[in-house]
Write a structure and sequence with these properties.
With about 425 residues, the protein is mainly alpha-helical. Helix content is about 50%, strand content about 5%. The protein is built from 18 helices and 6 strands. It binds carboxymethyl coenzyme *A. The site of carboxymethyl coenzyme *A has 20 residues, from loops.
């Protein structure tokens, strides 16, 4: 698999005769890494990489991104093939276990998820404690974190079976919690999960059904929802996944770790971007206002960003954005939505941005969030639920990465170092002696 020579990098501290030889490590694809663990012992220096732009925080076999080529692989399988040919539960199995399941493995996994969809009735009462206008992500952070208080029987993270049950519980119950957060905010009764429905359908059912009306599944929306879940399922060591790993490295239980991931995902630079895209489009209001908006984005003093554009890793089209754009056209077409002004504005923004020197020189392309908000809106999903939906999908990635970390024998607590620039040692000054 790996045909690269082991190799090493020798670093000399200028002005001294001290040097360190640091081994190179090679993955199956992608850039090699320099193992810097000896650097401090040998030279007494740390590395400095705020935002971790050049640091591999772990070894992983789950997801691979080639940002220059716009490639995303889950366990080696291209995202385009999975989005077209697979479905969310199969992708969840793949991410968690490393291989595509055979028919029996898939049926057992599917059953395992379906039969954990209900949440403890007492946990249901937590919802009443929130204000009606609470953002559903706030509810998600609270209720998912509270799961640890209800599922004591699988908190021994050293036991593989308990880890597996925790994974089932999280993947199965997060859609129930998400849908109830929404139902609570609009004052509708909670819809209990239906285990006869597929994952995406059950989620749509809990979001949209009411007890007084028959619920009719729309296969177009069902397919679109499943595809959105597949596209968001994992994305290697992004901010929320790294948060889950860092929390997990302390031995914290999986429910607490996933709650930490949800909190990190909430920010507009990460999962909150799909909500921010729609807000941006409605603030622009009309295509005629786009040039002024682009000028504002390019103005360094404005701090306005073109939301849904740019990515830390992708310096080319985000492959998920391409699939999202196609799905967006499909969904709007099938739903008979013509001349959707938000879509027209998004396409115009994309056209202008892709031909503008500012975006070209910085390699800023549409990311997954640029079109997902428009699809979700067309599907009748309220804006405040966009990031929640992302969290539902990403729970699979988080739990897969958490499991991989726990099962890694070399795993130890995550504890970054720092470059201290504060005051040096000084003596306490009594209050009456201070200037
Ligand atoms: N609009 C305008 N300028 C931008 C944008 C943008 N969306 N993104 C980056 N830039 C500029 C930035 O100002 C900087 O310019 P300069 O070199 O002149 O200072 C340059 O591009 C590099 O930006 P950066 O902030 O160093 O890049 P980063 O890797 O730290 O940030 C990002 C990545 C995703 C946070 C950023 O591109 C961004 O804020 N995008 C908008 C929010 C967004 O869509 N987020 C969703 C990411 S995809 C979903 C997910 O994985 O969560």
């Amino acid at each position: 698999m790996n045909d690269k020579a082991p190799g090493s990098l020798t670093v000399t501290l200028e002005g001294t005769n001290r040097s360190a030889t640091l081994p190179l490590k090679h993955g199956s694809i992608g850039p090699s890494v320099v193992d810097i663990r000896r650097l401090y012992n040998d030279l007494g220096v740390f590395t400095f990489d705020p935002g971790y732009g050049a640091t591999a925080s772990c070894e992983s076999r789950i997801t691979y991104i080639d940002g220059d080529e716009g490639v995303l692989l889950y366990r080696g399988y291209p995202i385009e093939q999975l989005a077209e040919k697979s479905h969310f539960i199969e992708v969840a199995y793949l991410l968690l276990n490393g291989e595509l399941p055979n028919a029996q493995q898939l049926a057992e996994f599917d059953r395992g998820v379906r039969y954990h969809t209900m949440i403890h009735e007492q946990l249901r009462r937590f919802f009443d404690g929130f204000r009606r206008d609470a953002h559903p992500m706030a509810v998600m952070c609270g209720v998912v974190g509270a799961m640890a208080a209800f599922y004591h029987d699988n908190l021994d993270i050293t036991d593989p079976r308990q880890r597996e049950i925790a994974a089932f519980r999280l993947i199965a119950k997060v859609p129930t919690i998400a849908a109830w957060a929404y139902k609570y905010s609009i004052g509708q009764p909670f819809m209990y999960p239906r285990n006869d429905l597929r994952y995406a359908d059950n989620f749509l059912y809990m979001l949209n059904a009411v007890p007084t009306e028959p619920w009719v599944n729309n296969p177009i929306l069902s397919r679109a929802m499943d595809r959105i879940l597949v596209l968001h399922a994992d994305h290697e060591q992004n901010a929320s996944t790294s948060t889950v790993r860092l929390a997990g490295s302390t031995g914290a239980n999986p429910f607490a770790c996933i709650a930490a991931g949800i909190a990190a995902l909430w920010g507009p630079a990460h999962g909150g971007a799909n909500e921010a895209v729609l807000k941006m489009l409605s603030e622009i209001g009309h295509p005629k206002n786009i040039p002024a908006f682009i000028a504002e984005v390019k103005d360094k003093n404005s701090h306005t960003r073109l939301m849904g554009f740019g990515h830390r890793v992708y310096k080319n089209f985000d492959p998920r954005a391409k699939i999202m754009k196609e799905t967006c056209h499909e969904v709007l077409g099938e739903l008979g939505i013509k001349n959707e002004p938000l879509l027209e504005m998004a396409m115009e923004l994309e056209r202008i941005a892709l031909s503008d020197e500012y975006f070209i020189s910085r390699k800023l392309y549409p990311n997954v969030d640029f079109y997902s908000g428009i699809i979700l809106k067309a599907m009748g999903i309220p804006t405040s639920m966009f990031t929640v939906l992302f969290a539902v999908a990403r729970t699979v990635g988080w739990i897969s990465q958490w499991k991989e970390m726990i099962e890694d024998p070399s795993q130890r607590i995550g504890r970054p170092r720092q470059l201290y620039t504060g005051p040096t040692r000084r003596d306490y000054i009594a209050l009456d002696a201070r200037p």
